[in-house]
Amino acid sequence: MECPACHSQTGFSQVEKWLDYRLMCCGECGLTFSDPMRSASQEYYEAGEPYGWHWAFDYFLGQGSGEGRTLLDVACGNGLFLAAAARRGYAGTGIDFNLDAIREAKEVHGVSDVHACTFQEFRQKYPERRFDVITSFHTLEHLEAPDAFIAELKTLLAPAGRLIVVVPNPERWQVRYRRNLGDYPPNHLTRWTAKSLQTLLTRNGLQITRTLTEKIEPHSASDVLQVARTVVSLQLATGVIARQKAEIGLGAASGNGSKQKRLAMLRRLASLKAPVTGALSYMLVPVLYPYLRRRKLEGEDLVVEAAQGSAL
Ligand SMILES: [Zn+2]
């Protein structure tokens, strides 16, 4: 066994067993990883939640104009971030394996330079392209080979390029509040700490320039509503949905017909859940607001920024 971040071969402790996996924690760098490192099928992601807005988008776009800079967003989804980056002046490019998301990026969000392909296919098609900024939002934790992924990103960075990697914050209030099956394999294969992510990047010859986490600072009722939605959503049958999804992802559902039936059932559950979640969330806002003002909770994003350093 080897740690996917620091390559240590000893000093692991077993955190938990889950389905066909063991969750192991590396004593050297603090990464928790699944054994085996086996990710979900594409159908799993097709049954997934819609793409949303992340705090880290605002954080990055708040740093100033991107005029004259090229940006690659890896696993860009429906292009929400790329569209916002374009408004800040960036010349944005996106890749994602999800064909529907890429279509939405073009047709709904008006992002033209997006490609439904794998990373390797993109490199083969555009061997000369390099980017001033590369962003990766909430992708690393899904990958079977995070080290190879970072090594590939580095080859696409311009000489003075910046890499921004965002993963789930291990201290986020959501996981402290309640066990979240979305944080388990086959969805998340790794749980990163600041230290383990920094280790992964420096091992790949990058220089860490900044590390920070999101803090929940409610400025308006709609900020509080976001938190309320998550609380309600976690209370409403999420465990059932996550477990079903995990089993479909592992191919545990027998036969194609049964898999289709279960996918249809999941979609029905999700559509039933939405209006109930909405109504209950509104009722929670007045209770949550004073609490959140008092206690600054940790949010979902852990951001580590790095610059292109010398090669190893
Ligand atoms: Zn390690």
Helix and strand element order: EEEHHEHEHEHEHEHEHEHHHE
Q: Helix coverage percent of residues?
A: 40-55%
Largest sheet: 7 strands, mixed
Number of helices: 11
Instruction: Quote the beta fraction.
Output: 15-25%
Bound ions, cofactors and other small molecules, one mention each: zinc ion
**What is the fold named in CATH at topology level of the largest domain?**
Rossmann fold
Describe this structure in words.
The structure is a single chain. The protein has helices at 42-46, 55-61, 80-87, 99-107, 119-125, 146-156, 173-177, 194-203, 221-235, 238-249, 256-294; strands spanning 12-18, 21-26, 32-35, 70-74, 91-96, 114-116, 131-137, 157-168, 190-191, 206-215, 298-308. It contains 11 helices and 11 strands. It is globular, with a radius of gyration of 20 Å. Helix 9 (221-235) crosses helix 11 (256-294) and helix 10 (238-249) packs across helix 11. Helix 3 (80-87) links the parallel strand 4 (70-74) and strand 5. The protein has 312 residues and is an alpha/beta fold. 41% of the residues lie in helices and 23% in strands. The strands form 2 sheets. It has a 7-stranded mixed β-sheet with strand order 6-5-4-7-8-11-10, with helices on both faces. A 4-stranded antiparallel β-sheet has the order 1-2-3-9, with no helix packed on it. Zinc ion binds at residues 3, 5-6, 8, 26, 28-29, 31, 196.
